[in-house]
Design a protein that fits this description.
By secondary structure, the protein is α+β, with helices and mostly antiparallel strands. It contains three helices and three strands; from the N terminus they run ββαβαα.
């Protein structure tokens, strides 16, 4: 069983404004100075995928997420199931 401190909550979303870029926010890593802004950006965006990654090995999981964001932002079709498969054992 994982405790709250053993996992990182995140969301991948698409900006609905001018750029339309896909972005990620790691909610449990936000600080007081950027928490409200980042949450508002995610809420204003179009939800794509959310979940938890294990804190142990999170750097590798973040690299996988960054790679998926690059693919999405280059116009490659990626579905939420592919995100889950790519993250594999990193999902908490």
């Amino acid at each position: 069983m994982l405790f709250e401190s053993d996992k990182v909550m995140f969301e991948i979303y698409r900006e609905t404004g001018y750029t339309g870029k896909y972005r990620v926010v790691f909610f449990t890593e936000l600080q007081d100075h950027n928490k409200e802004t980042e949450i508002n950006h995610a809420l204003a965006g179009e939800h794509f995928y959310d979940g938890f990654i294990k804190n142990f090995g999170k750097d590798e999981a973040k690299e996988i997420i960054a790679s998926l964001l690059n693919r999405l932002n280059e116009g490659e079709p990626v579905d939420p199931g592919e995100v889950e498969r790519a993250l594999g054992d990193h999902i908490a």
